[in-house]
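Deliverable D4.2, example record:
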Amino acid sequence: MSFARAGFRTLVARTSIILAQRRALSAEARKLIDSAVQENPLVVFMKGTPETPQCGFSRAVCQILDVQGVPREKLKTFNCLEDQELREGIKEYSEWPTIPQVYIKGEFVGGCDIVLSMHQSGELEKLLVKEGLVPELPPLPEGEK
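Output generated by the structure prediction step:
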């Protein structure tokens, strides 16, 4: 078999897998996710709840948001373990393969690794302040750095 035919066969197989994954999210589920993401300032699709996370990555995201001072009333979470369609569908919706997933003001931010990196660099705090999710901290007095 020629290299081109083998490559085409691989492409067809991968396309079939992608199309099968695309069918995981019904129109109704897409609409519900759209509504959740657009109507809430900060949304986390996670395993478990903020009070009882069911995986370390979900726990880490919740801890980061707590450290950042995000009030619970501004945070909407969805337990993907309770709904198999949501668990698979959110991955298609965002085109991101893992859970948790964080959305701020309707925009996909990323998963645990990205949120952690943004937290460490200070970028997450800037975004949360910009979007009105946390107040800006006053500058430290001179000599207290």
